[in-house]
Structure formats: C-alpha cells, structure tokens
Amino acid sequence: MSTQLSIILDCDPGHDDAIAIVVAAAHTNVLGITTVAGNAPLDLTTRNALIMTDLLGLDTPVHSGANRPLVAPPRHAGYVHGASGLDGAALPEPSRRADSDQAIDFIIETCRAHEGVWLVPTGPMTNIALALRAAPDLGGRIAGISLMGGGSFGNRTAAAEFNLWADPEAAAIVFGYGGPLIMSGLDVTHQFQATPERIGSVRAVPGRLAALLADLLTFFTSAYLARNADMRGAAVHDPLAVMVLTHPDLFQREPRHVVIETQGEHTRGMTLIDQRHLIERPARNCDVLTAVDADAAFDVIVQAIASFSRP
Ligand code: BDR
Ligand code: CA
C-alpha cells in the first residue's frame, strides 16, 4: 500500500470516475467525495458516487455541488457514459442519500481543517473554482490540485477535452490558482486503454464488484470503439489523476506554462500548453503528464478492485 495522502475526489461518475473512486479508496485517505454535473446531470452523478461507495463498503462523506457550469450551458456526455452516467451494468439502488448539497462549503471547511489536502477533480472544475473563489486562503492551504483534463488535442472538439469544454471558465480559475498543479490530459490518458485483455483481468477477479466493473468497462470500451478509429479500448482517464499522487514512479511529466482558451470560436476549452524552449518564458504553472507505464498502472487498478472483493 502506498503512502496515504488525504484527498477530496471531485467527480462526475462516469465510468472512469468510478474506477478513480476505487483506486482512491484503496490508496488514499479520501476525506470526501464531491460531485458535479458533467458526464450526466448532478442528481445522477451523485447517485452514481453513492452506489460506488456502497459497492466498496465505504462510509466516506458524499456531498453534491454545482448543478451547472459557471457560464456555459449544462451539457452532458451520454454518448460515452449512457444516459445514467454509468450505463452497462446492473447496479444496485444506493442505500443512502448525499450528506449534503453543499460541496463547496465541504471543500473549504475540510481544507481548512486538514493540512495538505490534495484536491483531485475528475470532472468539470466548477466546484473547485467556486471553492477557490469563495475562500482565497484555500490555494495556500492545500497540497495541490491533481486534475484530469485537457491535453495537446481534444476529444469533445478538436481542441478541447470534455472536462475543459464543459466549464472553461472554471478551468481557467483552477489553472490560475497559483499552487502545485498536475494535469493528466489526453496525451497520457489515451495511453491507458481498457483493452479486452485488461477488461478480462478485471473480470478474473472473483466477486460482484469486479463483475460489475468489468461490465461497466465493457460498455465504456464499446462506446469508444464506436467513435474512435485508432483505439483498442476506452481511455481510462480519471484514475490517473489519483495514481500520479499514489504511484508517481509510473509517470513521466514536464513542467509547462498552461492557459485555458475561453474565447476562441473553435478553441474554447483548449489547454494551451507552451512547448517553446525559450530562455525567457512564462513561469511554469503546471506539471503536464506525458507518459504512463500502462500495464503497471492497470495492475494497480486490478489489485485495488481485488482488495475490495469478497468472493
Ligand atoms: C473526461 O470526460 C469524461 O467523459 C471522463 O469521465 C473524463 O473525466 C475525459 O475527457
Ligand atoms: Ca470524469
């Protein structure tokens, strides 16, 4: 087991968010799960987070947050995750309700009460931006922000990755907050695909949890293969934002200056990564992940699932 960092996982489950919850629960001290509208409307992403905590036997607090982006209209990703946000498996009803609908207050209070929390957003960054805006001290209190989003290419548009495209103004606040920032963008997450062999290794784990997660990954991969000519499985984006904290040796990274395009007709939501090798260049505000040891990282997922599995 790796060193237990304290994190708040801010997510929009989402198939890959669900896997991020598993890895976070296995390898970090999850102070809370906060939910945001993204892959599906807020009521569904919250419901899905609660289902995941049930399946894992966690009593981790779950707080719902923003039900829409700061400026952009609410738009979801049913074409990848299905209408429920977690289509593809016969999931149980959640046994409990969210602890509150005040995720922003929860983030602020928790980061003030605990030194060195990592914020890990794996959906649109609306909650994190609102917390940073409401509590200007937060940026200096947290250990950092490790986010899934962006890249040198897009998926929702040619320029923009979904989490950035969904709420560019929130992302601009996060990328400008001034503290440690790690970006797991598409350049690295597309190296991490749920191939048939990897889904098979999940299905080989005994028990209901693994069977349900294998069903979810099968649906997720089918959605990707229907849309992408050059992939062998869904990109399992979100757990990388957790694993770069818990298993940093599996990754390569480059410090870069990254800004968010909020105006462009064709480029709104783009992460503009300064790749120039100038002697005088803008200060680097972000560690951009460039490579992952995908087999070893997927094994971390399989072992995390196994650690929660009761045959
Ligand atoms: C991101 O968008 C969502 O569909 C996934 O959960 C991930 O966070 C990838 O672009
Ligand atoms: Ca997500």
The string of secondary-structure elements, in order, is EHEHEHHEHHEHHEHEHHEHEEEH
Query: Tally of extended strands?
Result: 11
Proportion in β-strands: 15-25%
| CATH fold title | Inosine-uridine Nucleoside N-ribohydrolase, Chain A
Query: Runs with pLDDT <50, length 5+?
Result: none
Principal-axes geometry comes out as: globular
> How many distinct helices?
13
- Report the CATH C-level class: Alpha Beta
Largest sheet strand order: 3-2-1-4-5-6-11-9-10
Gyration radius, in Å: 18 Å
Describe the structure.
- With 311 residues, this protein is of the alpha/beta class.
- The chain has a single domain (6-308), classed as Inosine-uridine Nucleoside N-ribohydrolase, Chain A (Alpha-Beta Complex).
- It contains 13 helices and eleven strands.
- The strands form two sheets. It has a nine-stranded mixed beta sheet, with helices on both faces. It has a two-stranded antiparallel ribbon with strand order 7-8.
- Strand 1 (5-11), helix 1 (15-27) and strand 2 form a beta-alpha-beta unit.
- The longest helix has 20 residues, at 208-227.
- It is globular and about 55 Å long.
- Bound molecules: beta-D-ribofuranose and calcium ion.
